[in-house]
Amino acid sequence: DRFQRERSLIREVLATCPPSRRGERVLIPRLRGLEDSSRHWSVWMTLDHLRITNGVFAVVIASLARGRAPSRPASTAAVKPDLEAAAGVEAGFEESCDRLLATVAEVADLRTPARYAHPWFGPLDAEGWWALSAMHMGIHRGQVARILAGLRS
Q1: pLDDT tens, 17-60?
Q2: 117: which strand partners?
Q3: CA distance 63 to 72
Q4: C-alpha 152: how far from its chain's center?
Q5: What DSSP letter does each residue of 106-149 carry, written as one string?
């Protein structure tokens, strides 16, 4: 439910920003849970990051549900957005949300014996990765709201 709620809230916040300004980078104050290197992004860069991470969450959850952790370690460097992210990323973000929701719906029990280590939170089962995805969306919803506030000032 929280993932869906955060997705809806991101859509609402996004609707308040003219498309012509969604590619403008804004330096925002530090937010809890947000890396310092992520403070100078545009709305589209943020959506691109969410597109990438939602895809990673789907792969991790599907792997753990099959009893295997992905072979490569999770990396925050691997999920940085394209600095030139543009309007097309909005559809990609929506598709990544749909893909993650579909992946989770296919898993009978998210409390998997298999674990995969997150760089900050350590080993998590599929349920932990699913919970993390919703929290992650909320952090970046806050980021988008602050970017928009910066565009207005």
Answers
A1: 999 999 999 999 988 888 988 999 999 999 999 999 999 999 99
A2: 123
A3: 12
A4: 24
A5: T-S-S--S--EEETTTEEE-HHHHHHHHHHHHHHHHHHHHHHHH
